[in-house]
Amino acid sequence: MFFHQFYDQALAQASYLIGCQATGEAIVIDALRDPGPYLAVAAREGLRITHCTETHIHADFVSGARELCAATGAQLFLSAEGGRDWQYAFAAADHAVLLHDGDRITVGNLHFDVLHTPGHTPEHLSFIVTDTPAGVGPMGIVTGDFVFVGDVGRPDLLEKAAKIANTMEEGAHTLFQSLQRFRALPDHLQVWPGHGAGSACGKSLGAVPSSTVGYEKRANWGVATTDEGEFVRMVLEGQPEPPRYFAEMKRINRDGPPILGAPATATELPPTEVLGMTDSSLWLIDLRPAAEFAASHIPRSLSVPSSRSFSTYVGSIVPYAAEIVLLADGEGEAANAQAQSCMHDLSLIGLDRVRGWMPAGAALAMWGAAERPLATVVQHTTAEFHAGAARGATILDVRGQTEWEAGHMPGARHIPLGDVVDRWRELPEGAVLVHCQAGGRSAIAASLLQRLGKEAVSNLQGGYAAWRTVRDAVSADLTA
């Protein structure tokens, strides 16, 4: 048996290629949208991708199952569990084999036994893997978003992200019942989860790529909690806000992601085009560091520095119908590589309408040469703030709900970053000082508020963490 885990850092997502070396057949589970890595590893190992499946209708990325089947001719297998509202709309058109609890997928000498494990989503499946020539029974389980290393899948996404009312408590009870089946599995089974640390599909995911059933029974709070009421309370407590784009992902993956047929690539645009980019539906996304953006940027552009969280932030702010142009940091091959990487990440969450990219420096120079004013974002240090800078401004906290509840500035307004687009009109007239925990999200929010029409916007450097450090130091001096 051949086994390979693929891991995407930006999405904190794991997918799997598992093959029978005797027959050359292989299956991919929970594929991302780009088939290239799977095809490359299969070719290197002398395998043919003949089967493709996924654990559930994903909310955090566009499924690559259709794309991979189109590229390889593989047979598609999809869940038929979960009830009428949780069926794949494209299953019949793609001649997919529908799976129920207790079914089996056979790939050469390998068996993948289907276990219906609802709770995170109603249709969720796990796959128990057996290498039959070994003759010793199952060796592992692909758990998707059911059981992670150190955590379990969150049951509140349908209500919080997809806006399906009154589903999260029911989902929590269902998840508890599914975990009863997990606890009954042999301790030696390896656990291959769908996500790791950094994913919004849980609240305390471990960074270790795999585990065992026995270890999770002892170390995973969700598996170890055997009181149903206590489990329901704990699994719903403290879950982070789901990124805004999750609802869109559910729709796309249920209805059927469009098949691209080729990797998405971004075209370099001449800097002169920036002068004509006045359409309000167009989003200029500036990839430079936040400090450079604050010092000088094209009005109404959005500051989202290139990072592993890039697609999460863009997906939580930019409408899916919008066209996007990327303003890359630097020039030449480095700028091109950055733009292509960011476009690839956007493609993974279905933001496909990227018109192209241009070097930010050249675009700013062209803007200035046309005698158009550039914009800035005023930056305040916490020391300046405590000394009275931005006095009279509305303080806007764009952190998540859990962060807010753990402590916040007196008199601050709270609107999480992903909600600013819809709720910014709740802010009173006048100046706004934006902050988050450390300064990254607030820099994005400040640029967004400028785009939305707020003129007097400033950013608190270092965020709440720096503010609290200064406050504590001042308090210590007063009591010394």
Can you describe what's shown?
- This protein has about 475 residues and is an alpha/beta fold.
- The chain is about 30% helix and about 20% strand.
- The protein is built from 17 helices and 21 strands.
- Helix 9 links the parallel strand 13 and strand 14.
- The chain is globular and about 75 Å long.
- About 45% of the residues are buried.
Estimate the helix proportion, in percent. Answer: 25-40%
Q: Which geometry do the CA atoms define?
A: globular
The span between the termini is 67 Å
Estimate what percentage of residues fall within beta strands.
Answer: 15-25%
- This entry's quaternary arrangement is single chain
Rg for CA atoms: 24 Å
* Average pLDDT metric: 94
The description of the largest β-sheet is: 6 strands, mixed
Overview in brief:
By secondary structure, the protein is of the alpha/beta class. It has helices at 36-44, 65-72, 157-160, 168-183, 213-219, 221-224, 228-236, 246-255, 290-295, 310-317, 332-348, 360-369, 382-386, 401-406, 420-423, 440-452, 463-479; strands spanning 2-8, 13-19, 25-29, 48-53, 75-79, 97-99, 104-107, 110-116, 125-131, 140-144, 190-193, 211-212, 282-286, 302-303, 323-328, 354-359, 378-380, 394-397, 413-414, 432-435, 457-460. β13 (282-286), α9 and β14 form a beta-alpha-beta unit.
